[in-house]
């Protein structure tokens, strides 16, 4: 019901010399006197200088002015001095959203105007509409000026205006929906057309006209009369960011007509609050849905291995051919214009005043499985990025605009590792996660030169020092590797860099040494004093459930079997994981990337609801 009206019983409305008053009203009208008069048990009530009546009605009016309240004024001797009558029209107005997050837009939820995290929290949720319902001329739906397909409404949050009252509002009164200038870049509201609304929306040609946006911060909405509902669809336009917490307010006001040229006055405002859903990464422990790879003129062997792995694992494979990938083989940085479609969108951030480096690629953006650290739960895991060493003054960093964006999502608090020691500089060159049946449900895999040298020394001790790596053109023996002092010094440096990151990951993810598996991987340092993998980097793998697609290392063969593959297979079999080795040597490894760099995976979402996080 419209908020209670206030009727002042002061000298402006009371006849001169008034000392007392009494009140009568229609059955559906209630009133309260403030300040409360003493309970004298007699009428009329004494009138003082600040007496007010607070008037409410418990049901909506069926016709205008169908109720009234009258005040009788009395003099010193209780003689009647005059009478004031207020004619009342009650209109029920409620702007409603799914504030209890059960999929239904309930009527007038008391928590609809606020937002709270946690399993006992409340507040409506809004998606960023960054996919495309179009099949041609693709643009993200949020970039389109209108709703072109009904399916697009599923990406928006419903909002319902419920009204109850007479057939029309009193003369001059109107309903207006409005947003703030600050929210206008983050949200749009679309309406629906009905027969009763045709006149109001006569300037729109679509069934779902734009009501509010950056060009229209407020707009009159029709009052339909009787018991009516009007559906609206709210669209998120941007994810939370450094300058946007993610909260959006939409208001609906009843305006009273002005007189003598003054502006209209709001006499009632209802308000709802949404939080824009954050951008969430999915870790390797979630089940895959679809795998993406690029086709180039020289990666036939890689594609052949990937097809075999994906088909064996039972998932879908999407190959982006040359005409759509622009010759770019690095599927981690996917060709979004071609993949954009229903329920497949993207977000970008532009570094206008910053230098962009290779650290601003997807290989340098990973996420852990869910963890608990010192009693604090991260049920969606934690984002992991690579940056320069904290004390470095000239190192490469992921751009600030991207880092700010990642931190603003809140639900996967980022961890910054030191990755600038690598030539490419990506965290996926020395770490990944695989599922495990015990402990925390996963293992952290780390590249380890120490483990590599231990393996090679074991081969030498077993009289396999002449076993050869690589092919005829680049072959090298185990003995030659072990006697290369420069290579050993370079790997000591690499190991110290990885050890520093190991300590960070143990601390920030709550890991023990038993949660970590060291993989035998060697590196060498380039002229720029940055490291690259000496042979295909087995940690740079693709994880498809219990099946791993691992760069084929072309290690020394013992009894006809690659010793590196044998060690890797043994380590993973203990976790119930199956290893497939994919030849990416010429088409990826020599270009400083591997299997993970050349693929991408769409995974099932978390079962945990992000809004249930305790903040």
From TrEMBL:
Pfam families: PAD (PF03068), PAD_M (PF08527), PAD_N (PF08526). It is found in: Cytoplasm. The keyword Chaperone does not apply. Residues 11-89 form the Protein-arginine deiminase (PAD) N-terminal domain. Transmembrane segments: none annotated. Residues 91-256 form the Protein-arginine deiminase (PAD) central domain. This is Peptidyl arginine deiminase, type II. Residues 332-612 form the Protein-arginine deiminase C-terminal domain. The lineage of its organism: Eukaryota, Metazoa, Chordata, Craniata, Vertebrata. Keywords: Cytoplasm.
């Amino acid at each position: 019901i419209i908020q209670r009206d206030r009727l002042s019983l002061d000298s402006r409305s009371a006849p001169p010399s008034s000392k007392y008053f009494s009140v009568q009203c229609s059955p559906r009208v209630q009133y309260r006197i403030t300040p409360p008069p003493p309970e004298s048990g007699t009428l009329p009530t004494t009138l003082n200088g600040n007496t007010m009546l607070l008037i409410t009605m418990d049901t909506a009016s069926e016709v205008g002015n169908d109720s009234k309240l009258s005040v009788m004024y009395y003099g010193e001797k209780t003689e009647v001095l005059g009478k004031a009558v207020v004619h009342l029209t009650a209109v029920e107005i409620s702007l409603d959203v799914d504030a209890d997050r059960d999929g239904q837009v309930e009527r007038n939820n008391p928590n609809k105007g606020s937002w709270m995290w946690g399993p006992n929290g409340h507040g409506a949720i809004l998606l960023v509409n960054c996919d495309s319902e179009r099949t041609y001329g693709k643009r993200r739906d949020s970039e389109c000026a209108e709703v072109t397909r009904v399916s697009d409404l599923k990406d928006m949050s419903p909002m319902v205006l419920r009204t109850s009252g007479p057939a029309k509002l009193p003369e001059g009164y109107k309903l207006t929906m409005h947003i703030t200038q600050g929210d206008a870049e983050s949200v749009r509201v679309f309406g629906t057309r009905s027969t009763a609304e045709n006149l109001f929306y006569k300037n729109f040609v679509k069934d779902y006209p734009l009501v509010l946006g950056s060009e229209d911060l407020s707009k009159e909405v029709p009052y339909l009369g009787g018991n009516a509902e009007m559906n609206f669809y709210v669209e998120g336009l941007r994810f939370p960011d450094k300058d946007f917490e993610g909260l959006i307010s939409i208001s609906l006001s009843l305006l009273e007509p002005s007189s003598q040229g003054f502006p209209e006055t709001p006499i009632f405002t209802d308000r709802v609050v949404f939080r824009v859903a954050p951008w969430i990464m999915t870790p390797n422990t979630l089940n895959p849905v679809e795998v993406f790879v690029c086709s180039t003129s020289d990666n036939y062997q890689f594609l052949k291995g990937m097809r075999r792995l994906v088909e064996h694992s039972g998932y879908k494979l999407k190959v982006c051919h040359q005409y759509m990938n622009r010759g770019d083989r690095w599927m981690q940085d996917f060709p979004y214009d071609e993949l954009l479609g229903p329920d497949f969108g993207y977000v970008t951030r532009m570094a206008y005043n910053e230098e962009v480096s290779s650290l601003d690629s997807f290989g340098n953006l990973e996420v852990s499985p869910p963890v608990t650290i010192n009693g604090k739960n991260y049920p969606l895991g934690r984002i992991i990025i690579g940056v320069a060493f904290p004390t470095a003054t000239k190192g490469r960093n992921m751009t600030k605009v991207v880092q700010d964006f990642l931190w603003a999502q809140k639900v996967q608090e980022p961890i910054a590792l030191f990755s600038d020691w690598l030539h490419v500089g990506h965290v996926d060159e020395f770490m990944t996660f695989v599922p495990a049946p015990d402990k925390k449900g996963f293992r952290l895999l780390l590249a380890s030169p120490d483990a590599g040298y231990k393996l090679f020394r074991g081969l030498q001790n077993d009289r396999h020092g002449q076993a050869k790596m690589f092919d005829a053109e680049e072959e090298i023996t185990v003995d030659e590797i072990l006697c290369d002092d420069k290579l050993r010094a370079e790997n000591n440096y690499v190991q110290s860099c990885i050890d520093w990151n190991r300590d960070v990951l143990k601390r920030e993810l709550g890991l023990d040494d038993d949660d970590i598996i060291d993989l035998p991987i060697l590196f060498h340092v380039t002229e720029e004093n940055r490291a690259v993998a000496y042979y295909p980097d087995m940690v740079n793998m693709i994880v498809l459930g219990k099946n791993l697609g691992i760069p084929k290392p072309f290690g020394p063969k013992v009894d006809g079997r690659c010793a590196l593959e044998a060690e890797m297979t043994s380590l993973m079999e203990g976790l119930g994981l199956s290893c497939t080795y994919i030849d990416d040597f010429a088409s990826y490894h020599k270009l400083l990337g591997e299997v993970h760099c050349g693929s991408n995976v769409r995974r099932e979402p978390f079962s945990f609801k992000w809004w249930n996080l305790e903040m």
